[in-house]
Structure formats: structure tokens, C-alpha cells
Amino acid sequence: MIIVYGIRERLDPIKAQLSDTLHQCLQEVLGLPEDKRAHRFVPLAREDFYFPGGRSDAYTVIEINLMAGRTEATQKALIKTIFQRLEQQLGLAPVDVEITIQEQRPYQWGFRGMTGDEARDLNYRLDV
């Protein structure tokens, strides 16, 4: 699951393209299938979004929640691919993007009435 935060006036116009770009990166680097898109956008009023100096109103925070299992190299590749594609496809400067990856053990995920460690029908791998 991905949660994206930004200033409403900057985030709303690019949500669809941003979702497409993020999902392309997840498919390419993690091997996620097309139907595993789970993105949430949180557009904030300017007065509700404080961010570091040296950033523009395009400042965007991307939180990526994953079941644990991907290697350090894979996670770094995902972050770098996202930075590159966001700059190429949306014109978002890397200085205006913050990405965090949060991992949870599969038993800490719940979906379709079971926990992640009980799922035997995942059509993607965690150990990449």
C-alpha cells in the first residue's frame, strides 16, 4: 500500500499520472502484477503541511508499506527508480520528493480474511 501526501493544489492535478508512475516502478522493480495497485492520496491544505526548507510547493511524501522480504538492493533500486521516473514523467525534482519504505512481517498484514503468511495464492514474490 502506498500513501502519498502533498499540497492539494499541486497533488490533485497529478494524482492519476503519479499513481500510474508509481505502479510502473513497483511492477518493474518488485514484480507486482497490474491488479495489485493500492494507492491512497492525502491532499492537504497548505497550512496543514509543514515541510523542510529548500523545498517547493510540489513537495511530496511517499510512504510505501510492504510485506517484509525484499532485499536492501531491491528496496534501494525501487527508491532510485521512483526518483528518476517522477522527475522524467512528472517534472518532480528529487529535492521535492521524500520516500520511505516501511516493512511489516507477513503475519502483520490482513487481507481477504486472512493474514499475509497464510496466503498461498500470491502471484508475486517477496524475496526479490
TrEMBL record:
This is Tautomerase family protein. It comes from Isoalcanivorax beigongshangi.
